[in-house]
């Protein structure tokens, strides 16, 4: 640990929120405990009112502080870190809600799916062949294109979500998706070759 880091930790309780987050951004985790002590209760109270499921609140508080360690460099230097932490918590709430809505839709679709197939054996074979062609065509895509296609088309993710996961600009995600769809279309028009 550097002498500056040792000095910071020795009087960390007297540091401002901006100084604590700067130290966290530089890789020091000691100041995170002080930030947690300052703001976990106000953040918890906010989440108790904002979260649809009270059982998730403590997990969300922990997740907020963990996310704050990765986002510390983006702190704007305000006097209080509470708005910064509440913003992170709000994003986490929205992400959980989107995930829940998506899972609920999948569950509802699964429950509504007919249990017995009304297809003739010939139709069933044709469908299986088409699915095999599609899977083979998807497998031939480059990793970059295939991953974006699967995340958007099969997992129902938005472009910004995929961009955040992959660490790429949103425009790059849309370009890769467009290229993947065009390549699939060409491959399937040639009969999978």
UniProtKB/TrEMBL annotation:
Residues 35-98 form the RNA polymerase sigma-70 region domain. GO terms for molecular function: DNA binding; sigma factor activity. CDD domains: Sigma70_r4. The keyword Nucleus does not apply. Pfam families: Sigma70_r2, Sigma70_r4_2. InterPro entries: RNA_pol_sigma-70-like, RNA_pol_sigma-70_dom, RNA_pol_sigma70_r2, RNA_pol_sigma70_r4_t2, RNA_pol_sigma_r2, RNA_pol_sigma_r3/r4-like, WH-like_DNA-bd_sf. PANTHER family: RNA POLYMERASE ECF-TYPE SIGMA FACTO, RNA POLYMERASE SIGMA FACTOR RFAY-RELATED. This is RNA polymerase sigma factor. It comes from Polyangium fumosum.
């Amino acid at each position: 640990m550097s002498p500056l880091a040792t000095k910071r930790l020795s009087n960390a309780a007297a540091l401002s929120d901006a100084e604590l987050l700067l130290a966290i951004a530089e890789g020091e985790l000691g100041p995170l405990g002080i930030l947690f002590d300052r703001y976990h209760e106000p953040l918890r109270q906010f989440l108790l009112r904002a979260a649809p499921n009270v059982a998730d609140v403590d997990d969300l508080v922990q997740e907020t502080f963990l996310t704050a360690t990765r986002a510390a460099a983006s702190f704007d230097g305000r006097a209080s870190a509470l708005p910064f932490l509440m913003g992170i918590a709000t994003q986490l709430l929205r992400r959980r809600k989107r995930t829940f809505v998506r899972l609920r839709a999948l569950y509802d679709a699964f429950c509504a799916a007919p249990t017995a197939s009304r297809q003739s054996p010939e139709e069933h074979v044709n469908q299986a062949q088409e699915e095999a062609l599609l899977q083979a065509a998807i497998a031939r895509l480059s990793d970059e294109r295939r991953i974006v296609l699967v995340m958007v088309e099969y997992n129902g993710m938005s472009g910004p979500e995929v961009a955040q996961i992959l660490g790429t600009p949103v425009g790059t995600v849309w370009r890769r998706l467009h290229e993947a769809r065009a390549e699939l279309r060409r491959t399937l028009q040639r009969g999978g070759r």
